[in-house]
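Task: sequence in, structure out. Protein: Protogenin B-like isoform X2.
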Amino acid sequence: MGSVKWKTHQRLLILLWVLSFPGVFSFSELSFTVEPKDVAVSHGERVILDCQARGESPIGVRWRKNGVQLHESGRSRVLSNGSLCISSSEQSDEGFYQCLAHNRYGAVLSQRSRLTVSMLLFIAHPVPAEVTLGSVARFSCAVSGSAVISWELNQRSLPLDSDRITVLPNGVLQICDVTMRDAGKYRCLATNMASRVRSREAELTIIPGLCLCEDEQ
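Result:
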């Protein structure tokens, strides 16, 4: 009988030792294949915090924000693979997130990930322009914070491999001696350490030059 009590005591000590580790609540066959990482987005941007666990099914996933269980709402929901989706981020969404995976054996808690929401916003967007063939076209934009400005044409990065096309120190895009190939939709891309945001598109229309000739008499 004493031997049985000693074995029971040993098992209890082992259980208490396992439970002393942060992130493990009981014996569990669960493990994470993907854990959430730090994310920085701009205000209003869609956010995906990844979380995927493996183990005996069924596996449930819940999320915590700053140590408190996060309840789904109109903007935030848990996807079928366990990841958290925030459809339109706000300043109030900033904080530390963890996913909790659980099945009938127990539960495991992921590493912490920090969500940062930047208030980098456009205060001036580029406007459509019409210029004649061979003239100069300019587009400008402005953001609420410090950022590096680059440009895109038809939603693709605009190459600056020509002396005709330059981005001035103030972020203005200047295209000299415009050709018909320069026509299209331009937008501004503002980037800083916390976020990356794109402006509205502005179309550049090229007007062909007119040739006025007099009939010879």
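Residues 64 and 159 are 43 Å apart (CA to CA).
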